[in-house]
Design a protein that fits this description.
This protein has about 150 residues and is α+β, with helices and mostly antiparallel strands. It contains three helices and nine strands. Strand 5 and strand 6 form a beta hairpin.
């Protein structure tokens, strides 16, 4: 009887631990995102809008005064950032397991402040951005761009 309860308790702990791990968000390192050869700009946020849906988040940002560190860009642009908040994969017994998304973002993307300047790593079409970085990251960005 005690062994059975211990097994049930162990299974419960494992299930809870797996769920906790599956809710962790993993952000790629800045250097990994910059190594993709994507454009990088410094710009001021004129306006930002965050939309949270059942399984995704979309951030729309109007940028002004954009200056390219790598690539080229218009001075004013509207860019978007989105990611899935729910990914599933089959488990070892055929059940669906939630998997946390690995994102190129820094985690700052939904917290942008209007009027502030940031660095943005853009996708090649200049309509979407992969990552936002604070101005304090300038040295890291420049070193990574030189090495990449």
């Amino acid at each position: 009887m005690v062994r059975r309860r211990l097994r049930i308790l162990s299974c419960l702990i494992l299930c809870l631990a797996a769920e906790a791990v599956a809710s962790v968000i993993i952000h790629q390192k800045l250097e990994q995102v910059l190594s993709l050869g994507t454009p990088v700009v410094r710009a001021r946020v004129l306006s930002t809008r965050v939309e949270r849906w059942a399984n995704s988040v979309t951030v729309s940002v109007h940028l002004v005064g954009a200056r390219a560190l790598r690539g080229s860009c218009p001075e004013t642009m509207e860019v978007s950032y989105s990611y899935s908040t729910l990914l599933e994969r089959p488990g070892p017994y055929g059940e669906l397991i939630r998997v946390s998304p690995i994102r190129p973002g820094s985690g700052l993307e939904t917290e942008l402040v209007e009027g502030e300047e940031y660095f943005f790593v853009l996708e090649e079409d200049d309509r979407f951005f992969l990552r936002a970085e604070p101005l304090e990251s300038e040295t890291r960005i420049r070193v990574a761009l030189e090495e990449g």
